[in-house]
Amino acid sequence: MPTTKKAIVAAAAGVMALGAGIGVASLASADPTPTPTPSATTSGAPTPGHDRPGRGERHGAPHDSDLAKELASKLGVTEAKVTEALQAIHQENKPTTRPDPQDRPDPAAREAALAKALAEKLGVDEAKVTAALADIRAARQAERAAALQDRLDGAVKAGTLTQAEADAVQKAVEQGVIDAGEPGRR
What we know:
Elements: H1 3-28, H2 65-75, H3 79-92, H4 107-122, H5 126-158, H6 163-174
Helix pairs in contact: 1-6, 2-3, 2-5, 3-4, 4-5, 5-6
């Protein structure tokens, strides 16, 4: 095999290995924005999604303390009231069976349903809740993008990746080829 082809194959293998590592890391950090999940035993109202490690409780916990704090601030209500609302929504819509991962609702629809349920529970305008959730999601996505860039820069500096490989990984993430933890891309 010519040297150029070997270099391309080696670079592609490196990018795939890093992509797999990023994918595994993103699986460890689930969607931070609570989103509703309909269940067979409920009216189809929303339920929050799983929290991220280090952000409240795990395994379908009814709240994310950072999210509750951020929402409370943006909506002008107490953190306790937001936490209570998130817990109530979770309990009302807790699935009795494990949801089929192939049958996931659209993330935008889940977030809209969560916004509606939170608005009803908190007595706040649904548009205001929707805007607050969108702001929080955008800020968290920016944090994840910055963290990825820092990891890639570190890998280039350490000699683990070339700049071209890091750029390729970044482009793959931006194009949705590699999952870097963005909501709805699991």
